[in-house]
Fold this sequence. Notes:
Layout: H1 2-20, H2 24-40, H3 52-61, E1 72-76, H4 84-90, E2 95-100, H5 103-116, E3 120-124, H6 130-136, E4 139-145, H7 150-157, E5 161-171, H8 175-181, H9 183-188, E6 195-199, E7 208-214, H10 224-231
Parallel strand pairs: 1-2, 1-4, 2-3, 4-5
Antiparallel strand pairs: 5-7, 6-7
Amino acid sequence: MFHVKRQAEVDVRAVAEAMFGDRYPLAEQYVELLAGAGVRRGLIGPGEAGRLWERHMLNSAVLGELLPEGCRVLDVGSGAGLPGIPLALARPDLALFLLDTMARRVEWLREVVAELDLAITVHRGRAEDPRVRDQLGGKDVVTARAVAPLGRLASWTLPLVRPGGRLLAIKGATADEEAVRDALAVQAAGGGPVEIVHCGATIVRPPTTVVVVPRRAQRVTRTPRARRRKDR
Ligand SMILES: C[S@@+](CC[C@H](N)C(=O)[O-])C[C@H]1O[C@@H](n2cnc3c(N)ncnc32)[C@H](O)[C@@H]1O
């Protein structure tokens, strides 16, 4: 038994080293922060401390499979920094922004970003607040894990995504059910056809289930004056 467990630990380390490359030491530092101060300050449950690599670090970082080079990503409801910080560590080409509404979580995020010396900006606010939309809107991608049911999440976050961009919602076993149940709410929020994809099939077990919601391109409604001009 001990032998099997030891082998599994070795495998996770090898996978994590491949995932984070020369930033693996920083990923290790973040895991230590989560397991220590993160647990003490209630950012992460004590039961999670022993499975941070698989269930949190790798599970988050595999989302990178869906992110084009250099895109601007806003992680909404980032909490302890998930999935935003592992993504930033695995993909330094991305421009990462973290948003959370709770002061003590934002304080934690700012401390972690400073400690790891990451080029990430941290914002405090509610995703659905018009001031947050003005400040942070127009991103290529919004990510969210364990923040709200899909319909509500889409109404909060799609206005923060540029037309043609995407919301990537990490969901567990409820992904299919939520996609069907909330289809109308997603459409009303400006979402296009929803797709469910699995990331990291060779990296994490089970793979990370992601609900992908594209933001529909804005329909151009021509004013009567513009229409007359065009028809001339
Ligand atoms: C259950 S935690 C999940 C945290 C992290 N994404 C994770 O997977 O570990 C939900 C987080 O969403 C934040 N949150 C909830 N509603 C929000 C909103 N409307 N705008 C921004 N953040 C919100 C909460 O403060 C909390 O940190």
